[in-house]
TrEMBL record:
Keywords: Hydrolase. GO terms for biological process: DNA repair. It comes from Natrinema altunense. This is HAD family hydrolase. It comes from the Archaea. GO terms for molecular function: phosphoglycolate phosphatase activity. Pfam families: Hydrolase (PF00702). Belongs to the HAD-like hydrolase superfamily.
């Protein structure tokens, strides 16, 4: 039985990443919670992911950088979930192939996105994933994103397996999957149609429906 792990953004959710305005609003909400009114330059840095600059501003303003980071991640998840519920961000038309595959073999969701959002999306699409793993809501968790295989390795450990296939839409997905010892499937989507196929990708797909052929007969 072949284990298949899927990336989320650009594979299940339309678009390759969380919209920048979601992080901007999340940073503003976190600052409001903490009762902080930063300068425009500080606010700009808080809205981004440069930890060193953010930490410097936190020290200047007398707030705990780890607490700010956690709050920002929480509000970013809420913003992402609201966009999904409202239909502002959608899912791809072929994702039911994942549900069908889950009836035949072990499937998992492993993403650079926040774990809270990964769990929400798994429930939102109604797929019975055997493992769901997103990034931890800390700076250390953010630093462990792909191409680091940390979260893929953790998912494999949870499942008790060492091989399988990782399906993603980016070069970093392929790099992380290969580093974890998996075959990799590079999935074509509108945002990566013109990009060169990563040289270390095992497979190239035009639809999630094609994953079934990689798993083999029931």
């Amino acid at each position: 039985m072949t284990t298949v792990l899927f990336d989320m953004d650009g594979v299940i959710l339309e678009g390759p990443r969380t919209a920048p305005q979601v992080y901007a609003a999340a940073a503003d909400a976190a600052l409001a919670d903490l009762g902080i009114d930063p300068t425009p330059d500080q606010r700009r840095d808080f809205r981004n992911h440069d930890y060193d600059r953010m930490e410097t501003h936190c020290r200047e303003l007398g707030i705990d950088p780890d607490r700010f980071w956690e709050l920002k991640e929480t509000y970013a998840s809420r913003g992402t979930h609201d966009r999904l519920r409202s239909g502002e961000r959608g899912t791809y038309d072929d994702i039911d192939a994942i549900r069908d595959l889950g009836e035949r073999t072990t499937i998992g969701l492993v993403t650079n996105n926040r774990h809270e959002t990964a769990a929400f999306v798994a429930d939102y699409v109604g797929f019975d994933f055997d493992v769901v793993r997103g990034r931890d809501p800390t700076f250390e968790g953010y630093e462990r994103r792909k191409p680091d295989p940390y979260y893929i390795d953790d998912a494999l450990d949870t499942l008790g397996v060492t091989d399988g296939i990782y399906v993603g839409d980016s070069r970093t997905d392929v790099t992380a999957g290969r580093a974890a010892g998996l075959e990799t499937a590079f999935l074509r989507r509108p945002h990566n149609r013109d990009r060169e196929r990563p040289r270390n990708a095992t497979h190239e797909l035009t639809s999630l429906a094609d994953v079934s052929s990689l798993v083999g007969p029931e």
